[in-house]
């Protein structure tokens, strides 16, 4: 196996053993540590020896040789394994590089990540190279094998095929199939998807479900078809149903489903006392949601709910590592594991005062001591650069027709409605809560036009290259301001732009493939808040406008979606009207 995923060479392993044999000094020793022994489920005192990126000994002894060894006394401190995020979407305005640097300061060092964006930006070979090379960062990234696009694509076979699924499943960096948003297709007889699921199981890998509102009968059926875990429980009863069906359960706390406090309370009411088959996930939340924390925030909620700290810390470390067969590498403070360690001043405070990632200090005594060189990443070398828009909008692109529009029900649910405005007007009356809505191919080959109701009443021009497929969303009451927003989007090479009366009001530049910023999470939080506040001032009233943009095309949600193929009725599984070639 490649050493990027922490399987060491023979020479490295021999060298590590010489430390135990007293022939070589370790690089770092943490003395007098009280650490979480996940094998015994108890706190134990020990000295921890580290050689470079690997823990080589945990016990009472000190090394025979300490020349050149850094020795740090942790008396009164607590050591827990680095936190693991089991379900993330690392392209939500941020990118894997910026997410990992931010999350490491808060103790999260391993990610199970969606590779959805990569499949749209590069061929499968380049995607696999990216998925490997990102592990040069101090964090570790493992990935999913997507089976479908959760939208209607014009050429789906270009992205999801027998060959691409096979290549993904052969990668040691891919640990699971899914998330299975297309489970109704499997349940109703889609043998192609079931074939890929069986290939996933034969490869010894897990399948992540996506089963919101699923009944006991459906959960049982999906378990029979190979699903191993689900993150969509919204009540304590639904958690119990999943556990009873034999599923692993990932409790979600995200920007559109901040359910965790309620879930933990209801789980206690259900009599759930064993947390060994339970994780915690933020499910790819947007930057501003992470301002209060990442995995550490979920741990804080769990501890405030009076969970035993041992159970809480194991839910974000050992439970995840064991489930994915990675407990020989992560989730334990034990010999042989990657030196991802969090040092706490108190077990009731999950925000680490110090963090080690692959044996290097990322944070020490509350201060960021990470090295910029450890977080360098060659984006352009992996084919990720500014979005080049080499075409212009024409007058005919602003032709809106059709009687069926899209009405917002909440951040992510949309339903059809009968359009009442004059679609041929240059500007929609200010009293209406309707806006023109366009989805345009990023290459300029096709477009689909409709009207959206309830997105924002006073939004005049808005353009976004951040979307489900990387195609362009353009929204507004004024066709002129929509064009202004588009031109600015084109000028900056991708982003989210709000225009009003010919002026740019707010924007987030996304120069990495039109969907990711190269700013730090801290900087991006400021920009996202500024944009969100500007949208709220213009009538956006739901939880998360960034997720609204992402899910306009997502056909795993009801009831009507704007997709590459056209306006799609999710319930009837058919097009209401098709996209138009430009």
UniProtKB/TrEMBL annotation:
Its EC number is 3.5.4.2. Coiled coil: none annotated. Residues 78-358 form the Amidohydrolase-related domain. The keyword Hydrolase applies. It holds the Pfam family Adenine_deam_C. It catalyses: adenine + H2O + H(+) = hypoxanthine + NH4(+). Belongs to the metallo-dependent hydrolases superfamily. Adenine deaminase family. This is adenine deaminase. It comes from Fictibacillus nanhaiensis.
